[in-house]
Every structure is written in C-alpha cells, then in structure tokens.
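Morning. Coffee machine broken again, so started the prediction first thing and wrote up yesterday's gels while waiting. Chain of 346 residues, entered below exactly as on the submission form.
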Amino acid sequence: MARIRALRSPSVTPRKRSLRRTVDNSLSDPTASSDPRSARSRASRSARAGRMIVPSTLTILAICAGLTAVRSADVGQVDLAMGLLVLAAVFDGLDGRVARLMDASTKIGAEVDSLADAINFGVAPALIVYAVVLRDASSSAAQDFGWILALLYCVAIVLRLARFNTLLDDDNAPRYTKDYFVGVPAPAAAVMALLPIGLEQHFGSGWWSSVPAVGAWMVFIGLLAVSRVPTLSLKGANIRPSALAGILFIVAAAAALLFTFPYLLMIIIVVVYLVHIPFAWRTQRWAAAHPEHWEAPARDRRLQRRDERRQAVAAGTRRRGMPARGGRAPSTARLGLRRPQGPPED
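Came back before lunch.
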C-alpha cells in the first residue's frame, strides 16, 4: 500500500504539468498543429500591418506641417510658413507613392489623404494669405471682405477635391483622360494662391498686395480649380534620353534660384504654369476629337499631331509658322517686300 501511495503522489512540478496539458491539447486538436504555411501567412499579415503605418504617418506629418505653417504666418514668420507649406506638399506627394510601392494602400489611408489635401491646399493657403496680406487692410470692412474671399477659395478647393475623388471611380474613361487633370489641381492652386505673398516678399508692397488685387486673384484661382479646364498631369510623363541634359540644366537653375531668390522661383513657376494651360486645352481637344487615338500613349498622340500639321502644311491648308530647317525662306511677295534694283542705266 505504501508503494501504491508513492505512485499516486504528485511527482511533477506545476510548470511541467502545464506543459503536458498544452501538449495533450495540441494532440487532441488537429487544427492547433503548427502549419508552416499558416505561420508564414500570419507573419505576412503582421508585416503588412506594419507597412500600412508608414504612408499614414507621412500624411499626418503633412497635416501637422500645414497647420504649423498657419501658426507661423500668424506670428509674422512668413519664410518659415512658406517652407512648412512646401514640406507639407512634399509629404503629401510621398505618401501615395510610398503606399503603392509598399503595397500598403488602404481605404482609411485614402480618406485621410483627401482630408490632408483639403487642409494643406485649401485651409492653410487661405489662412496664410489672410494673415499676411488681407488682415492688414486699413478698414474693418476691407478685412471682412478679404475674409470672405479667403473662404471662397477654401470652398473651391474642397469642391475640386470632391470632384477629383468621384472621377477616380470612373473605370470606363478613355486612357487619354489620365494625362490631364480636370481643372487646376489643389497643390498647383495653393502655390498660385500664394503668389501675392511671393510678390510682396520679393518686390515689396504695391498694387499686387492690395485687397482688390489679392481678392480678384484668389477668386480667379478658385474658379480655375473648380472649372473643367484641362491641365497636364505629369504622372505618366516619359523623359527622352536626348532631353535629359536640358532638364538637368533647368533643375540646376531652379535649385540656384531656390537658395538665392526663392520667391522669384515661385513667380516663374506660376507664370509657366499659367502659360501651359492653353497648350493643354488644345491637346486635350485634339485627343477628344480623335477616338482612334484614345488608348494610345501620350508620345504617340504627340507624334500624330505633328504628322497632321506637316500634312496640312504640305496640302496648303495650314501656313508654316517658321521656315523648315534647311528649307527656303518665305518669299518676298508673301512678306510684301520688293526685290532690290540696281542703279538706272544711262
């Protein structure tokens, strides 16, 4: 009997007992066995969850930079405010690309990015322009009028972003529409709206910093944002190897201006962007009128337009703007000139 009691007495520690219970449960439940594929799947989901934090973090940093730019402009630090707004634009441009590269695109990330665009390119520029230029008006009525104009610009940007989000869901749109924006995009509109500040910082106070001029400019930019005027999209642009040297030279010149005369660079960018709008409108109209080229890349459409211009010039239905390289100069009769004559003979 003593031997039997010794066998019945507990001879294992609590740690061993729990380990044995775990082993018995795993043996009784076949689904709890370790599967390498399920372990890899769990690790993949965990890694993707970690990757999804990176794009959203960039978006949150963009919002913080944009709102801090408003605070800096309110206390008179205009240069810091402009730099923070540029930093917000950089973060906003990176978050979407990082999400696609890391395969971390989520629905909540897209919604946060849209809200960040409304804050950084709608609310922040309107408040900065009001704090730096419009709030210093001589009368309270002018200040109230300036605030109304700032609100109109902000509302226009929000409406433009709402329309942009709806156009993203149109999968049946032709391919050529991907090369154009409908209206001026929000980042470009924000830079253009800040032009009066750039003019005031570079040239000093003048008519360009008055309430009527700034107000008219803000309304004009808001109308461009909500309009259906096509503007070029550089997302799918292809750079030819032969044009690489010229592009690098332009980048070097822009970098030199950025570190010496940043507001002059801003003025040049705004002027160039305004000049490109008629060109984008003309090319978009040509593409819409040629359904056979809707699915062709932008480079192929550009070559086709050039061939049509050459054929029209050869047929005589279109006049050549400049003489062809190596060709004859325009005739003197077309230019209204007379052939020089020698001295009269005796």
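Residues 1-13, 22-33, 322-337 have pLDDT under 50 and may be disordered. Going to sketch it on the whiteboard this afternoon.
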